[in-house]
Write a structure and sequence with these properties.
This protein is of the alpha+beta class. 37% of the residues lie in helices and 22% in strands. It has one domain: Histidine kinase-like ATPase, C-terminal domain (Heat Shock Protein 90), CATH 3.30.565. A hairpin with a 5-residue loop joins strand 1 and strand 2.
Length: 189
């Protein structure tokens, strides 16, 4: 059997006809991803459990990118947007995007609830959505961020809810005693 073996670079041996990918000795181990590479999108089943799943994903993503200091505010906002999407969507799924760009975390949640064409219905629905997002709005305001909702630009319509959490004030959320000291160091690059 060894008579049909082929020696590859670095001494790897493969059988005849075998296809292999040899990793050369001394190959650099990649560093963990930095903050600026945080870019995730995922679909959740619409249901009462989707806020819990969204929180877990947000925690893991933030930790993987060295942004644990944003955890308290970001996880709360992700959870509130996901819960609101479940309450309003007539579709079986909601779509969540997490991005870190320009020293801020951007959270976007899409649901399938179409915007109403009747102005009175639209105003009533918008009022209900704003009421559902009171806690998210308070957290975003405390972080000196922005939030809102409107028509989804995606095919199929629906509603797009979003929040932007600037890095430094978001670190301060819930931890004033050490916030600016940690935030001054900035995210892991």
């Amino acid at each position: 059997m060894l008579e049909n073996a082929v020696s590859g670079a670095g001494g790897a041996v493969w059988g005849a006809g075998a296809v292999g990918c040899h990793v050369p000795k001394g190959t650099a181990v990649h560093e963990p991803p930095g903050a600026e590479s945080l870019s995730y999108s995922f679909t959740l089943p619409a249901g009462p459990h989707n806020a819990r799943i969204a929180r877990q994903v947000a925690r893991n993503v933030l930790a993987a990118h060295g942004l644990e200091e944003l955890h308290d505010a970001a996880v709360q906002v992700v959870s509130e947007l996901a819960a609101c999407a479940w309450r309003f969507t007539p579709t079986p799924e909601v779509y969540v995007c997490l991005r870190y760009r320009g020293e801020a975390l951007r959270v976007i949640v899409y649901d399938g609830h179409p915007r109403h064409t009747n102005p009175r219905l639209a105003a009533t629905c918008d009022g209900q959505r704003k009421a559902s997002l009171r806690l998210a709005a308070a957290v975003v305001k405390a972080c000196q961020g922005e939030w809102g909702f409107g028509d989804a630009r995606e095919p199929g319509g629906g509603t797009r809810m979003w929040a932007v959490l600037p890095h430094v004030p978001t670190v301060a959320f819930g931890r004033p005693e050490r916030a600016y000291r940690k935030a001054a160091r900035g995210p892991r690059a």
